[in-house]
Amino acid sequence: MHSLPTPTLSPMTTTTGTTLDLPFFRRFLDRATTVLVAHAAYLTDLDAAIGDADHGSNLKRGFGSAAQAVADAGPTTPGALLTTVGVHLTNTVGGASGPLYGTVFRRMGKILGEDAEVAPETLGRALAAAVASVRRLGDSAPGDATMVDALQPATDAYITALGERRDTAAALKAAAEAARTGAEATIPLQARRGRASYLGERSIGHQDPGATSTALLITALYEATDPALCAVAPEPPVEERPAAEEKSAPGRVGVVLVSHSREVAAATAALAEALYGGGDPAPAVPAGGRTDGGVGTSAELIRRAIGEADEGAGVVLVCDMGSAVLTAKGLTGDGVRIADTPFVEGAVAAVVTASAGGDLAAVLAAAEDARTYRKVTG
Predict the structure, then answer these.
(1) Average pLDDT over the chain, rounded to whole?
(2) Total-model pTM
(3) Residue ranges of the DhaL domain (predicted)?
(4) Which residues have CB under 8 Å from 84's CB, separation 6+?
C-alpha cells in the first residue's frame, strides 16, 4: 500500500525565526523538485489506477526543468520566483496538472507581490488565494477527491496555527501534516471531478494522485525551513533573450483545435478547412496529444498553436473534453477565448465564420451556436 513520506528536518536544525525571503523560496523549489522527481513513479502508479498514468512523469518534466526557467528569468523577489515557476509549469506540464499547479504558483506569486521578505500572514493569504483559484478553475470542492482535499486543509491549518501565535515553522509543519492527512483521506472518496470521475464508484479505494503531489509540495514548503536539508546549488549565468518580433497588421481570427489525440485534432482541422470551400481558410491549427506523441494534452503544444494561429484578431480554442479544457483555460486572455461547443461541429462553424472575416465575438457565437444542432428530429 502506498504511503506518503513523513515530513523531516535535520536533527540539529533549529527553525525558530524562519525568514520567508528569496533564499527560503529557492530552497522550497529545490526541495519540491527533488521530492517530486524522486516520487514520479509513485505518483504515476497512483494515476494509472484511476487516470491517464502520466501525473508523475508530467510533474517530473515540469519541475525538473523549472530551475533553468528560473535561471533564465532571474527573479529577485519571492513573488517573482513563484510567478516564473507558475508560468513555466503552465507551459510545460501536460494534462490538467499544468494549469492547476501553474495557477497555484502564479496566484501565490501575485499575492506575495514585490516584497523582498514575506510576512507569515501574507503567505497565508497567498495559500488561500491559490486554493480559491484552483477550486474555481477545476470547479472542485473538498470531498471531490482532487488536489483541493490536500491544499484546503493545509491552508486552513497554517492560518489557524498562525492565529494561535505559533511560529512560521510550526505553522508550516501543521500545514504539511494536514495535507498528508487530506491526501490519504481521498482513498474512501468517490471522485467527482477530473479523469477519475469517469470511473464512478470504481474510483473509491484509490488515493488521488493530485492530492498526493500537493501533500509532497506542502511538505517541501515546510522542509524549506531547514537550510541543511535544502541546500541551493549555484545559479548558471543568465543569458539574454532575443527581442520578440513585432506582429504584422491584424488579419483574421485564428482557430486552435485542442484534442487528446494528435490525429483527431489534425483531421478535424482539415475537415473544417475543406468544408469552408473558399480556397483561403482562416488559420485552423491542430494541438493534439502530448509532446511525446502520446494521448493527452500539452500546454506547450497549445501555446505554440496559438502563436501560429494568431494573426492579431484573436484566437478561439475549440476543445474536446476533460483536461483539454483545463489546460486551455490556463492559456486564455489577451484575445484568446475558449468556445463552449461540440468539438467537430464547433470547429467547422468557427473556421467557416473566421474565414468569412468574422470578428472574435462572431466566431465565438457561431461556434457556440453549434450546441443547438439537432441530429434527431420529432
Answers:
(1) 86
(2) 0.67
(3) 23-223
(4) 69, 70, 73, 75, 109
